Amino acid sequence: MLCDRVRMDAYHSAVFRNPHHFRGKVVLDVGTGSGILAIWSAQAGARKVYAVEATNVAEHARELVRANGVADIVEVIQGTMEDIVLPEKGESCRFLNPCYICSFLNRCQTFEIDVIISEWMGYYLLRESMFDSVICARDRWLNPGGVMYPSHARMWLAPIRSGLGDKKMEDFEIAMNDWNHFVEDTQAYYGVNMNALTKAYRAEHEKFYLKSSIWNNLHPNQLIGQPAVVKEMDCLTATVEEIREVRAQVTLPINQDRTRLAALAGWFDVHFRGSKQNPAVEEVELNTAPDENGGTHWGQQVFLMTPAPRVNEGDSINVSFSMVRSKENHRLMDMDITYELHEASGRKLPAVATKIFLE
Ligand SMILES: C[S@@+](CC[C@H](N)C(=O)[O-])C[C@H]1O[C@@H](n2cnc3c(N)ncnc32)[C@H](O)[C@@H]1O
Q1: Which of 35, 99, 180, 308 has the highest count of CB atoms within 10 angstroms of its CB?
Q2: pLDDT averaged over the chain?
């Protein structure tokens, strides 16, 4: 992640092109990792930075903070965001700012966090569900009028061509062939018929090869139609409820002739815009769309359409998309994608439904 130039440049630009958000402010870095975002916040003029990290990497963050001469500003706290208590006691409350009664009675327990910065994005934005922890931090600690870095996020879906589907189908057939030989050999040499497990083996391998979302860094020329937004979020107001289930109906116009709809591809972008009350002077975007220069470590997620229908310029794909958290592991996602091909001639093909697992 530290070598992902697109990611690093975006966060660096967002902080240093908007020093008014940091100068003299109290910043909370949710999931500080190496501490890089906390260190930048301090270098941009923050008065105090709380850098919270769940794992032992917190030790390395402390070392880097010291080595970079910002130990008087950055305080690394090891613990999960949901459990820790910030040491800073504010002088104002949420109702009045400053609240003279609270400060006089020395009773106010509201904490003054002006900026929450975090790199919480997972594959296709929401895998790993780390944004839950950022929402928790925001609701507990962010001042009214505070800003989120990043401030907005979007999820995209687009039709693509790709050889990945054929390759995965080949791998699946090889796996099934191997299994059939294994069943024959086990019967011949050991006298046990394993065939009763063929259905389960097939289902498991079909899921692995054909129904699991595939990481890929696509070239923009693999896009065969217009992308559409399936989810937009304001990080200042988004709720866990809102991201638990993403549902969308989109139409994707095809703009290439005589090709196949091998898959739909998903990616995200985030923006650093500050807030309405306190906007960025310079907006910054972090985009993970297909990029001829190589893209990001997030790449894109490819959802195979098997079989891949033939499509032509002027056709359009109506997609009904839903993504929910997996019941077995809330950090993983299950998707239901139903698509309907509308040909330019006016003919509508029957809807095809597929399940995809983002694991
Ligand atoms: C994607 S890394 C980002 C690290 C660093 N901020 C950066 O930009 O390079 C996310 C970090 O957040 C930490 N993390 C995830 N959930 C957390 C939570 N609830 N509380 C504290 N840390 C968390 C992980 O251990 C990991 O180090």
Answers
A1: 35
A2: 93
Say if residue 159 is preceded by a cis peptide, omega within 30 of 0: no
Backbone angles phi, psi at 298, to 5 degrees: -75, -25
Is 359 annotated in the active site? no
- Can you tell me the distance from the alpha carbon of 60 to that of 38, in angstroms, rounded to the nearest whole number? 13
Which pTM was predicted? 0.91
Q: Which of 274, 263, 291 is nearest to 352 (CA)?
A: 263
Q: Which of 84, 117, 119, 132 has most ligand 1 atoms within 8 Å of its beta carbon, as the pocket-test mutant?
A: 119
How many CB atoms are located within 10 Å of the residue 336 CB?
14
128 part of the active site: yes
How high is the pLDDT of residue 92? Answer: 47
Beta pairing, strands 352-358 & 300-304:
unpaired
Q: Ligand 1 mean position to 345 CA, how many Å?
A: 51
Residue type, 347: R
> What stretch of H or E contains 185?
helix 164-190
Task: Give the angle 202-203-206 at the CA atoms, nearest 5°.
Answer: 80
**DSSP 3-state assignment of 69?**
coil
Pocket of ligand 1 (CB under 6 A): 1-2, 31-34, 36-37, 52-55, 57, 80-82, 119, 130, 133
SS3 196: helix
What does the pLDDT look like over 250-309, one tens digit per residue? 999 999 999 999 999 999 999 999 999 999 999 999 999 999 988 999 999 999 998 899
- The number of residues making up the chain comes to 359
**pLDDT for the residue numbered 87:** 77
Are 160 and 263 in contact by the 8 Å Cβ rule? The answer is: yes
| Rg from Cα positions in the chain | 25
Atom of ligand 1 nearest to the CA of 84: 20
Q: Can you tell me the ipTM of this complex?
A: 0.99
Of residues 13, 229, 235, the one with CA closest to residue 120: 235
Report the nearest atom of ligand 1 relative to the CA of 82. 19
Which pLDDT score is estimated for 86?
Answer: 87
Helix, strand or coil, per DSSP, at residue 283:
strand
Q: What is the mean pLDDT of residues 230-258?
A: 96
- Separation of alpha carbons 166 and 209, rounded Å: 11
pLDDT of residue 72: 97
